[in-house]
Each structure stands twice: as structure tokens, then as C-alpha cells.
Design a protein that fits this description.
Helices cover 37% and strands 21% of the residues. By secondary structure, it is an alpha/beta fold. Helix 2 (47-57) links the parallel strand 2 and strand 3 (64-69). It is globular and about 45 Å long. The mean pLDDT is 94.
Length: 149
Amino acid sequence: MRRAIFPGSFDPFTIGHYDIVIRGLDLFDEIIIGIGKNNVKKETFPLDQRLEDIQNAFANEPRVKVVVYDNLTVEFAREHDAKFLLRSIRTHSDFEYEQTMAEANRELGGLETVILYTRPELAHISSTLVRDLYTHHFDISSYLPHSNL
């Protein structure tokens, strides 16, 4: 079975993230969306809400699982017998970061990183943008797969 981990804080999980998972299902038998706890980042959306929103977005897709984790991604992947990481790139700076992380994850855990390019029409959407709009009371529903807001 080809199982991939799609890790992130997903604060919030955007339509760009959703698109990557849907496209990733063409490559993998199962994708585990790992919501990583990051004690350094200040959360905008509560962890329980993010978990529920992502589960709802994939309620009809049995090949997608959503799990919260608080250890290293390589350890999380090992616990779930995943050999691949699914990642995405929106910009040139994303590439440099992802390349560094891919090399570290391969060295530390033998994980192969598969990178999908964000569709051009979604490339401007980031969790940072959506959080900023949300904190300034803009409607963000068009940026989320299933908005409960």
C-alpha cells in the first residue's frame, strides 16, 4: 500500500490544501492528513475545529484519514507505516524550504517527498492570507473546502 502523510498546522485548511489531497489520491492508496501541534505558532482556529473541519471535508473519501500529532513528522510517518510525504509548492521560496525538509526527512526517516505544484488559480491562497482576512472580519468561506464559519 502506498501511504502518504500530508503534514501541516492547517490553520486553517484551505481549498489549496484540499486540492493537493484530492490530486494526491491519484498517486497514493491512502493519505493521512497530519495536523501537527506547533507550540511556537499562535493558533487562530482551535485544534478541535480544524480536525472536525478537515474530517468533514473528506467525509465521503475513505482513503483520507485525519490525525493530530505532536512528535516529529518522521516519527509520525513511521507510526503509520507511511513511506511518503505529500507536500505542495506555491512559490519559489516554498521550493527552497521544501527541498531542505525533503532532504532532512529522507535522511532521518527514509521518507520520500512528493511535491505537487499548486494550481495557478489557487496559488495566491495561503493559510496566512486566510487568517489575516478572518481576523479583519472578512468572509473567508470561498477559501475553505467546507466553511463552518
